[in-house]
Amino acid sequence: PGLTYPRPERGGERVLKLLPKIDPKWFQTQAARDRVPDIIGWLTFEHDGAITAAAMLDAIDKKWPESPAAAKATPKLLETVVTGRPAGQQIKAAGVLSKIDPKWATTEKGREAIGKLVEIATTKYASQRNESERVLTAIDPKWSERPETRATASRLIVDLTEESADVRKWAAGMLKKIDP
Questions:
Q1: 3-state secondary structure of 135
Q2: Is residue 76 pLDDT above 70, yes or no?
Q3: Euclidean distance between CA atoms 29 and 1, whole angstroms
Q4: Which residues of 149-163 are buried (b: 16+ CB within 10 A; e: fewer)?
Q5: How far is residue 13 CA from its own chain's centroid?
Q6: pLDDT tens, 86-127?
Q7: pTM for this prediction
Q8: Are 105 and 79 within 8 A, CB to CB?
Q9: Contact 88, 116 (CB under 8 A)
Q10: Residues 70, 40 contacting (CB under 8 angstroms)
Q11: CA–CA separation, 170 vs 134, rounded Å?
Q12: Is 136 helix (H, G, I), strand (E, B) or coil?
């Protein structure tokens, strides 16, 4: 009781990490349940606010994605996937979208967003690649067969000449996924 949750861009992520240390059952409190509508509003915040909010909501109420407030956050999250930076933010927003609406990627804007995730999945940065591939696979197990993915082949061929053996190995593996 009496706990307040700062907006995510003002330390919400730290609060999420500290709350279990203060009270391991914080998510079961009435105070937490009373804040669900506010926390759902965080889904429209930029940066990692949406991710912090989704993690808090998962702890408080597993059915939060079914709420009307979550549906209202969908356009902003979709815009983040399409135009957001950094790449990690785009990937995380796509993961939150998948919780709210598993079919979001079938819309016109969703297909555009998938193209952005494919671009991230074909980057040289291993952590972004791996996370983007995980999200893409959850959205569409056949993402590597999509035209957006096939369009990256020329860049992957260039990556076969990289100094890093890891990048060369990854590029060869990705080319094999695109065209077995």
A1: helix
A2: yes
A3: 8
A4: beebeeebeebeeee
A5: 15
A6: 787 788 888 888 888 888 888 888 888 888 888 888 877 888
A7: 0.72
A8: no
A9: no
A10: yes
A11: 15
A12: helix
Task: Give tens-digit pLDDT for 25-44.
Answer: 888 888 888 888 777 777 76
Contacts of residue 123, Cβ cutoff 8 Å, sequence gap at least 6: 87, 129, 132
Task: Give the separation between CA 104 and CA 136, rounded to whole angstroms.
Answer: 12
Give CA–CA dist 4/178, Å, rounded. 48
- Distance, in Å, from the CA atom of 175 to the CA atom of 152, rounded to the nearest integer, reads 9
Closest by CA to 61, choosing from 36, 79, 37, is 36
Which residue bears the tokens 């999945």? 121
Paired tokens of 74: 């969908």
Query: What band does 7 get if pLDDT is binned at 50, 70 and 90?
Result: low
Q: Side chain identity at 152, as an amino acid letter?
A: T
Q: Read off φ and ψ for residue 128, nearest 5 degrees.
A: -70, -40
